[in-house]
Specification:
Elements lengths: L16 E5 L4 H12 L3 E6 L2 H9 L5 E5 L5 H14 L5 E4 L17 H17 L10 E5 L23 H23 L6 E5 L14 H14 L3 H4 L1 H8 L8 E4 L9 E3 L9 H15 L16
Parallel strand pairs: 1-2, 1-4, 2-3, 4-5, 5-6, 6-7
Antiparallel strand pairs: 7-8
Helix pairs in contact: 3-4, 4-5, 4-9, 5-9
């Protein structure tokens, strides 16, 4: 298949059901729109239902809206319950929503906002919906990371919630590194089932609202440089769409833009940082995430895997 992968390469999605978080704007909107245009039944899982309804009205196809606030475990449980009641199956769960470089603040459950939203929220949602995916051949969980997973990034188990100090960039990097580690550990657990795959993607530098919380010193240069170094949300969504729909995509793979430094370009397979592949850290993060969210997945760790902890 040509490396110039576009939405024209998306196979027919008739009969498939996709849930896309944060789908009322930006990358999520473009992802949901493309899937609906190819025939999928798409659920926009969004915090602001009114904005979600307006986004759905601009799309063609079978599109509906589900309230979901990833900063609240109560909201996540309520959304998962509603989705489980209304959907017979889920073929695609696109963990797209996120926050970036927020000032120091917490989720409703007291977790650092970026880690709590980007990682813990999607961890909980996936665990609560996974049994609607396991019986579905070819189903996929696609979680969106970022090149930011390489920047000052580590999983700070001694201070996961940044209570002793706070760095916007480092906290964002931790959350995006966690997205990748979650994907890789989830794929190991799914491998014995043979039906559902976990895949990751990142959009490069895309012109979206995500960077609205960037410090002023960064916002101004980014505004000047944006036409040169960023790509449109439609292009930024292509790695996600390829991870979700390319028949050749495999569990545990990571897709990003194919241009220089993975900043922009058509999607291709990419490699994440060496730290992201640390199995013992992935497993420790999984155990901590289960404790913090109270969500247990219907897939067990591989026999003997936890011995490396």
């Amino acid at each position: 298949m040509s490396e110039q992968w576009t939405t024209a390469n998306i196979p027919d999605q008739q009969g498939r059901v996709a849930v896309v978080t944060g789908a009322n704007t930006g990358l999520g909107y473009q992802t949901a729109k493309a899937l609906a245009e190819r025939g999928a039944s798409v659920v926009l899982a969004v915090r602001n239902v009114e904005k979600g309804e307006r986004a759905a009205a601009r799309m063609t196809g079978d599109v509906s809206v589900q309230a979901l606030d990833l900063t609240s475990l109560d909201s996540i449980r309520a959304a998962a319950s509603a989705l489980r009641s209304r959907l017979d199956r889920i073929d695609l769960l696109i963990n797209n929503a996120g926050v970036m470089y927020t000032p120091k603040q917490t989720t409703r459950d007291g977790y650092e906002m970026q880690f709590g939203t980007n990682h813990l929220g999607h961890f909980a949602l996936t665990g609560l919906l996974l049994d609607k995916m396991l019986p579905v051949p070819g189903s996929r969980v696609v979680t969106i990371s970022s090149t930011g997973h390489r920047i000052r990034a580590a999983i700070h188990f001694d201070d996961l919630q940044w209570q002793r100090s706070y760095s916007r960039a480092a906290a964002y990097g931790q959350s995006k590194l966690a997205n990748l580690m979650f994907t890789y550990e989830l794929q190991r657990r799914l491998a014995t089932h043979g039906t559902t795959a976990a895949v990751a993607a990142h959009p490069g530098l895309s012109s979206t609202e995500l960077a609205r919380n960037s410090p002023a010193a960064l916002r101004l240069p980014l505004t000047w440089l944006a036409p040169v170094i960023t790509q449109t949300p439609a292009m930024g969504a292509l790695p996600t769409l390829r991870a979700a729909t390319d028949p050749a995509a495999l569990g545990g793979q990571y897709y990003g833009p194919g241009g220089r430094f993975e900043i922009k370009g058509h999607p291709r397979l990419v490699t994440s940082s060496p730290d992201s592949y640390e199995v013992a850290v992935q497993q420790r993060l999984w155990a901590v995430s289960e404790d913090l969210t109270g969500v247990k997945f219907p897939v067990a760790a591989m026999a003997g895997a936890l011995s490396s902890n």
